[in-house]
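Technical note accompanying the year-one report. For the benefit of new consortium partners, we illustrate the data format agreed upon in the data management plan: each record pairs a sequence with a structure-token string. No post-processing was applied to the example shown here.
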Amino acid sequence: MTTKALIAVPVSTVWTSKDSARDLDSSAVSNPVQINEWLESLTHESRLALCDENRIQSQALFGQEVLVMEEEDGWSHVIIPDQATSKDNQGYPGWVPSVQLSHREFPQTDTYAIITSKFADLINEDDEVELELSFQTTLPVVKEHDHVIEVMTPLGTRFLKQKDVIISTTKVNDQKGSGHDIVTSGEAFLALPYLWGGMTSYGFDCSGFSYTMCKANGYLIPRDANDQAKAGKEVALNQLEPGDLLFFAYEEGKGSIHHVGIYHGDGQMIHSPNTGKTIEILSLKGTYYEKELCIARRYWEETEESS
């Protein structure tokens, strides 16, 4: 029987199977989770293996709703409805440690607090910092105070600083941004190391980066590059605007799609390249990306201001 649950740690990594996590990943599969400790402990080789050995699928944020399909050996097979994919029509599938889930249900609310800072402190009633939450973590608002927002969390009622959030009537920012806004959101993460499957301020993969920057500006798009390349509005490669998504395929653009970046303007893109590299702004000219560029999609809506 399918049940609903909430992610109860700042970042829950979604593994391919219940056997995918290695001993060296123990700090990523615990509660409390130690994401910084985990990332710092990974060598280049053990980071690369997350991708090459198909260990990680995605990540989910604190308070995000998942559907639990089954539980086995302390692991839960979940679906993330907010992350559309061709892998499952209900949402993104994978396995998370059951200890990272809460079966508390959020009450109905009219407004949500969406974190817009890279990181934000979750504060308890004693004014102590309890957790560090990532960009785009979204929690139901209980009450707005002068400098803090009271929110409902999987741990109960807590507080976020007003400066770290925007208030929205929907779980995705109800103030739609322009293509330039998508680019600006991405620029805040320049020099952040790539993380396969990454969906947070601790590290993004290429499509996690494009997904999250679009989401931050009010556009919920598919999770993976191959699916992102099939939705949105197709844009001619000679009519690119900042904020358009650029897709790259093997065999000089004729093979399968393996990468996505965000057009930055003037022949450049901002993207999260691959393991060992960091988010960068790159000129396409003269690179293998120039040869592999095969399609562009626009998810942002043109307003009178942006046209």
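Partners are asked to follow this layout when depositing records. The helical segments are 35-41, 44-52, 179-187, 206-216, 225-228, 288-292.
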